[in-house]
Every structure is written in C-alpha cells, then in structure tokens.
Amino acid sequence: MGALGKLPRKSPEELGLSSLAVSAFLHELQTKELELHSFMLLRHGAVAAEGWWAPYEHDLPHMLFSLSKSFTSTAVGLAISEGFMTLDSKVVSFFPEETPADASEYLRSMTVHHLLTMGTGQEDDPLTRIDADDNWVRLFMRTPVIHEPGTVFLYNSGATYILSAILQKVTGQKLLDYLQPRIMEPLGISGAMWESCPKGIHCGGFGLNLKTEDIAKFGQLYLQKGLWNGQRLIPEEWVEKASSKQISNDNGEKDWGCGYGYQFWRCKPVGVYRGDGAFGQYCIVMPEQDAVLAVTSAVGDMQILLDVVWTHLLPAFSPGRLEPNEQETEVLREKLQSLRLFPPCTEDYSPLEKDLLSVSYSFVANPFQIGALSLSFEDEAVACRISQGEAATEFRFGRGKWLEGTTSLIRKFPEKTMSACTWETPDTLLLVIRLIETPFYYSIKCRFGDEPFSIDVKVNVAFGPTDWVNIPVQAAGETG
Question: Domain 3-335 belongs to what architecture?
C-alpha cells in the first residue's frame, strides 16, 4: 500500500497487460458513446491503468446506487462471524412490533439468507412505495409474500434495507459506523457517506458514496479472499459464499441471468462476479485473471458496457510481464490525459442578450419542481438562480467552459456541480448542470423566441423517461 493508503501503480506491461488493449477499450467506449466518469483497472494488486473524464475527478466520491448492496452484504457477513445473527435467523424475530398479527407462514419462515439472495418471495420491492409510509421496516413486513422464500428471485432493495435495519438493531450501530473500523479504515477509505431512511437507518440497498479507488480496494479485498496487508478482514468462507451462485435468476438478460450470490452478481465469463449499481457503477472481480475493474459512469444500457469489458480487457491479460512498446505506451498515455466530457459549445454569445439584461420567470407545476428561474448575462458567464419551493441555488454557467459550484436542490445536502452554457441558436440558450458526484446532468433550454416564453428540461439518465419536458412560464419580469 502506497502513501495515504493508495494502491501501488505499475505500467500495464509490468502487470501482463498491453497498453494497446486498454487503448482499444477506451476507443470502443468512445465509438459506442458510453459516458464513463472513471475507471481503475487492477492486476496483481496494483493499478495498471486509470482515468477520469474531466470534470470528474479522482478525489471526488460518486453515487454507487446498488453497488452499495455488496458493502451491506459484507457487514452482514461480519456480524454473522461475530455472533450477532445467523443465516437462518428469522426476519420476524428482529421486528416483532412490526410483524402483522396475521403474518403468513411464508413471512414467518423468511430468513437472513433469503434477504441476502433476493429470495424473499414478495410480490414486489417494498421500497417502490416509500411515499406511502416513512417506516420502511413496517412497509417491508406488510408486503405480501406470495412465494415460498428461497424459491423465486426478485430484485429487492427493500430486502437489503432490512439487512441494514437488522444490523443496526443487533449491533447498536448504523451500517457505515459498523463497517468503519472493520473495513473502511483498514482499506484506507475516508469520507464515505451513506444516505438514511426517515427513521435514521442507512438505506443499505443504495445510498453509499465512495471514490473510484475505494471501489477498487473493495474489489481487491474480495479478490484476496478477505485478506488485506496480511490481516484477515472478512472470513474466507463468507467471500466464497457471497460471490458464489446462491439462487437462480435466469431471465434471459445476459449478465443479469447468471445467478446471484449474497448481494453479488455472477457474470457470463467463467469465475467472474461483480457488484453493480444503476447507470454503470461497477466493481468487477476477475479471479482467474487476478484482476479488478472499478467503474463509475452514466450509461443507460449497462450490458453494452460489460460487453466492451469482456471483449477488450478480459482476454488481454498475460501470465507474465510484457515487453513495453513505446509507441503503444505513448498512445495510451495521451488517451488517458485527454479524457474529458466537453461543455456545450455552439456560440458563446447572442445579440439577444443586450435586450434581455436580467430576466426572471416563474413556472407552472412540473416534474422537475422548478418554481422560478432568473438569468443575468455577464462577460464570462451567465448567472442563474433556480428555485424549488423555498430552496434556491445560484449557478454560474461558463460560456463554453465548466464553472464550479454547489447545490443542495437534488439530494438536500451540498454537492459539487460543474455548469456551462451555449447559444444553440440566437434565441435558444442551453444550460447544462453536471452533478459530478452522481451520474446525472440536467439540460435546460431557454427559448426566448417563443411566445410565451418556455423552457425544456431533461436529465441524461433516470429510472423513468429521459425525454425533454416542456415547462410553460407562469409569469415573467425583470430582476434588479
């Protein structure tokens, strides 16, 4: 382990990987227009190649979505080894106060093992209905169990949340606090954050935020079967169980139909398994290749990204060192240094600006909850205030360049943004806000030529539609 807990760095060839293969991987990502934010490729415990697409940065955390589940599983494995629970512990035994009096036999037979394997037998994921009840444990316990637990796979973030709730109940610690001395500190992971439910329980199935190198370290820990710097952090038996097929999930969806372990997915290539999260957050462990790949991204079709990995990286590992090729090494170095997501750039200015001065608008009710927007035009930027209810954020959109800021509008706590703007036509201003600790960016088109004025808004990736939404103005005026 290097300075400040960083993984050692070596050239790809020292680790039996050609620079050409990594360049081909990067080229294919570009060809297929897959938006990655970062990647880190490990071989034999050292970093062979790494990159961040500016404005995303190596020292920033990233939303992991369901990759969080693999960390929850690890905490449960540790709690089992410490005697706090067993795989056969009944779920109802931890929450008698929330168990319905007429609980079915299927619910009463549900165990920790069933939670870990997504084999709860429920008809749907209770957390799709969190607006109905701020008590997520109660919501889970009242969701009908229509199959015998263990017989049917249903992806279920509620099951992982219940694991977090059980762990907090039996240990007296929140999930991340429990993991801190056992996993995070030994791995040199700092600054981790886990979002909580309304009752203060870490969400478990999602909500963890980590840096790319933290993801890579976690994968390396599993690759080493729970050992780290000669210290056993996770029981080897747990690593084997968690990463092995525990339940069938053959649904014809390629890498999502190869079997499921304890909050880890099995993959098409022999021996490979992964933790993954929505929009392409990956921790891929390749035991036969002695390799790990960590990825953060914003992709809609996650299978395409995996296919690029299987095509270009998986077969590229050699048993021993390779002789370096100076030309291939230089090509890769230049590719890695040039990784970036460019700001929108059509025209920096419009003649219309001299007539607009400073303008403000309020809007009708809309899915993005934008209540008001005000604009003022500066030499180097467009200043913009966006309001949602009582909350508001001031953004400065660089003309053809990213400008840094922060907002609490999306996740209700400050997170870093990069914003840029361009005039697509003389009367259409495009504003882009990248939330660079997440997969998301928002695009807002202000159409000054329309009567009445309106804006179009879209998000790049989402669990629902990503189409442009037109939002009519309710009132317009001038700001001071």
Answer: 3-Layer(aba) Sandwich (3.40)
Query: What beta strand segments (E) does 322-427 contain?
Result: 358-363, 372-377, 381-388, 391-399, 403-407, 415-425
Confidence check: pLDDT of 478 > 70: no
Cβ–Cβ under 8 Å, residues 145 and 121: yes
pTM of the model: 0.96
Does position 2 have pLDDT exceeding 70, yes or no? no
3-335 and 353-478 share one CATH topology? no
What count of other Cβ atoms lies within 10 Å of the Cβ of residue 200?
8
Domain positions in the chain? 3-335, 353-478
CB 42 within 8 Å of CB 7: yes
4 pLDDT band, cuts 50/70/90, is low
More confident residue, 60 or 408: 60
Q: Residues 22-50: what's their mean pLDDT?
A: 98
In angstroms, rounded to a whole number, what is the distance separating the alpha carbons of residues 209 and 466? Answer: 24
Pinpoint the alpha helices (H) of 60-143. 68-81, 105-109, 112-116, 136-141
Tell me which fold the domain 353-478 belongs to. Lipocalin (2.40.128)
Strands 372-377, 62-63: parallel, antiparallel or unpaired by DSSP?
unpaired
Question: What's the rounded Cα separation, in Å, for the pair 4 and 14?
Answer: 23
Helix or strand holding residue 330 (H, E): helix 326-337
